[in-house]
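Researcher: I'd like a structural prediction for the single chain below. Treat it as a standalone chain; there are no partners to consider.
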Amino acid sequence: MKRWLYIALLMMPALAAAQEGIGHWRDCFDYTTVYHVVAAGERVYGSCRGGMYYFSPDDGSATGMGKATGLSDAGVATIAHDQATQCLVVAYDNANIDIIHNDRIYNISDIKRSEMAGNKSINHIRFHDGTAWLATGFGIAVLDLERHEIRETYYIGTGGAHTAVFDIAFTADSIYASTAEGLKSLAIDERFPGISDRWRNDQRLGGTTITELDTIGGTLLLATYTIDPEQLTLYRSNPSGYSVWASGEIKSMRSGGGMVCVATPQGVERYNAALQPIDTVRTMEWGPVYAFDAVTDNDGTLWIGHAWAGIVGIDTDGHIHGNIPQGPAAGDNAYRLVPTLDGMLLCPGGHSSTYAAAGIEPNMFYAEGHSWEGLDLSNGALAGQHDLLDAAVNPKDTSEIVAALWGCGVVSIRNKKVQEFYNDTTTGVLQSYTPDGIYHTLLTGSVAFDRAGNLWVLNSHSRYALAVRRTDGTWEHFATDALSSLLQVDKLIYDSINNWLWFAGRDNAIYVHDGEGRMARINPNRGSKLETEFVNTIVQDRSGNIWIGTNKGIKVIYDTYNAFKNGGHGEESPVSCSNITITNGSFAEYLMAYENITTIAVDGANRKWVGTATGGLYLISANGLEQIEHFTASESPLYSDKIICIGIQPRSGEVYIGSVQGLQVYRGTATFAETMPQEHIYAFPNPVRPGYDGPVAIKGFTRDALVHITDAAGHVVYSTQAHGGQVVWKTRTASGTPVASGVYYVFASDAMGSNRSVAKILIIR
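Model: Treating it as a single chain, here is the predicted structure.
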């Protein structure tokens, strides 16, 4: 299958930085770590964990590339550029392929869609005579760069069997392939390369895995991998066989610009065509060089794929070039998303399903618009810690953010710097888990503030699973062994209606505590006709109901007021966890009964955004009876169908989506609204210029306002009700006819006819 698209990010910089329209997506990759770098004339491309970007040396700009801008997939495996055809080939982890030529993207999904058994991964890409030769997990695939199709597939294992090919190289008279069966070669003019017996076996480096091949000046270069010690050994061909010319902790070996670059964590070493050392680049003025990849351009510039500085170039005069697009430097790890009044917090930690720590470096990333910043770690307060899982903003002092670290405790953060560390020693309240009497870990998995500014902390694997820091700074904890001897919990929400705490974890139960002493255990299968085994997420909607995401769909607690009806001493609560029944004609089923629900977020219109483990992202109505949207990786810019977390920015209505492939943003149609309208009603785009046929978003209304749009003569052309504090108008009349050029007025009021607000929109056809 083939298709092409223009790369959407090839716009004026001012437009690229502008606010996205309703229904638009934005990529938020971590661009700081570049694994592959290729010089392609006026651009230098670098691949990252999820996507890629290009640096333009002429103006110093850096432009991100992902599914939101036209790429066909997320999770880039490798990239390569052909100077002869000026084609960039992008291979993805799932074996999908894009060819980018003249800013058009052509997708070749044949390998991805094929039903062949076994490994389909694409390990390296090499070019020869207008074709790209793909070293894959099953053999060699030859891609025609002009016709945009797979021309041939060669299975070169013994007897024509599938065998992994790690790399390919071309010399004047031969084609070489490093395979799981060793090094193989073929005459370059062989008429039948698909016959496996025509490939000659070279046993002179038998017993080692050859991971990379390259050539310089007609000399074949090889890299072999060993586990003990873990290193690459580099060989060169000679008349008598192969000889070693370098070894060590090598990340890549690349020829280009008449040199060979060897990238290592300690820097880049360059060699001439005779493989004699030329120079070594270990540091730059702002820090050390940790190179995953490196290549020399034809003009002598050294381009480095850096471990934490993105694409870095050093020209022949020693000048340093480089830039990185905006994005969270979180390694595409997204565990929880926490909305703030003006932005979003990304918590990139994690733990396994058995609560083992993931060991992710502790940090937290702040988004305001398109800008991202991490914590200031210069004071060393988080040195040796790991896995920042959750955060909460103090409603009484918004300069304070408190974050929970799995295995480490809780920290208070101001001005993006850790100010205080709360653990078992400093509080005398939080309790460590010591299963063997020696191993010591403080499992604090979630935090929440109540309306008074008290900080609540979940202390998992403890007899005192709920703790609080009062507004006066004192700490207190509550015995929860009436619920369970050692609660294993990591999900905490504050009930703003009842002023209670709800929490959940591993044991297929939900717990509620009134913050004073009453507590109850809630059975998620009580009142439900569909029994489930796991509670993955809980959230409270704007009506006060508790929505539960389970391994078999969604359940809702509507009678929260009955939580302590059985006494509140740790008994099972009588509240019901009800299924929502969906009727489709004569058939009825429970809401998302076949989906494993991983996360739920509530938008300004009380609608639910639902993330799943395999089914992608859903938007359902406030009562759950209507499916409004369903996004999947195959049918939308969504990176992956496995969603980890969702956060909704209240003012903009932007939906932040964290999946196993990283973070992205979708601009939704609903914003959160106050009981009073904002001082100014804001519409975008405004004015609506010729050629634009998308919607206009109008926000700042009072909650669920009644909105009427009139022409200059006062005739109503469209009426609707706001979703939260926002209306989306498609610049059409109620009958669907596009409105003419002119000034249009927006009038709004609440249900009682008060709290009126007015705006105007200019439309130019």
